[in-house]
Write a structure and sequence with these properties.
Length: 282
């Protein structure tokens, strides 16, 4: 493992030159871990997963992408901890950090935007209708700038993972998308940069989401799954539920076998999401 700090790259020229040199012009795989910073153990687990690709050159992007925030969302408040992030990445041996400014990423403004199609109109897309267009636009740019052969995304943002896989498949992109498991705190709370917004009381209340998912996942029919999860959520009226949905693993129709239970809720002023796999027997 590399014990030194990762090399920080901030411009298009720097990232292209450094990654071409490090990869031997494609002789070694380049594995991208896109983030918005405020790194926690969940992000670091993605870096470790990236390092499992044989011969990997690992580049972590840190960019708070304004395109994926709608008016009134937390763009300005989103935590920015760059120096601490680089220190954490040194600890796990990341090779490079790509930390562009909005001007570097969008020198002419966001002229060309990728629209994600019907899968982005449900769940997160229902209340954040411009979110996934912003995500896909920046991820596509990061893929092009880094010329990555692989990219790692966490299952915590499950719909995002599927939308990105769809973009790669539909556009015949020659790279592999790796999904990595959700990392949780000891309490069961899914690790998220937005957890820093929570008070101690809210943090305790937020564990209701993972408890609801666990209760649902223990059942075997769709009706039982949803009833068990909803009962846990109903017992915590201070939580403002946005959605609780049981869908197929592809976010389509439920099937016998593996499905996905997804929840979004507000705990105080903080919006949190979580999900888990659920096996239906009928």
């Amino acid at each position: 493992m590399n014990e030194t700090s990762p090399q920080v790259l901030t411009t298009v020229a720097e990232v292209r030159s450094a990654l071409a040199d490090a990869s031997g012009n494609g002789a070694r795989p380049v594995v991208l871990v896109p983030t918005m910073g405020a790194l926690h153990e969940g992000h670091l687990s993605l870096v470790k997963r990236a390092q499992e690709v044989p011969g990997a050159v690992v580049v972590v992007s840190i960019f708070v992408n304004p395109l994926q925030f709608a008016a009134g969302e937390d763009l300005d408040a989103y935590p920015r901890t760059f120096d601490a992030d680089v220190e954490k990445l040194a600890g796990v041996g990341a090779d490079f950090v790509f930390a562009p400014t909005p001007t570097v990423m969008y020198p002419a403004g966001p002229r060309t935007v990728i629209h994600p199609g019907p899968v982005a109109t449900i769940l997160e897309g229902k209340t954040r209708p411009t979110h996934f267009a912003g995500v896909l636009t920046v991820v596509n740019k990061l893929f092009n700038l880094t010329k990555c052969t692989h990219a790692v995304f966490g299952e915590k943002d499950y719909q995002q993972l599927l939308v990105i896989r769809q973009m790669v498949e539909d556009n015949n992109m020659d790279l592999e998308i790796i999904g990595a498991p959700i990392v949780r705190e000891d309490s069961g709370l899914a690790r998220s940069s937005r957890n820093t917004y929570l008070s101690e009381a809210e943090r305790e209340l937020a564990t209701t989401l993972s408890k609801a998912l666990a209760a649902g996942a223990a059942e075997h029919t769709a009706e039982e799954v949803l009833a068990a999860a909803r009962a846990v959520l109903d017992a915590a009226p201070a939580i403002e539920l946005e959605y609780l949905e049981l869908l197929g693993a592809d976010l389509g129709e439920r099937v016998v076998g593996e499905n996905r239970l997804l929840v979004a809720a507000r705990v105080g002023a903080t919006r949190l999401i979580d999900n888990c796999a659920v096996t239906l027997s009928a």
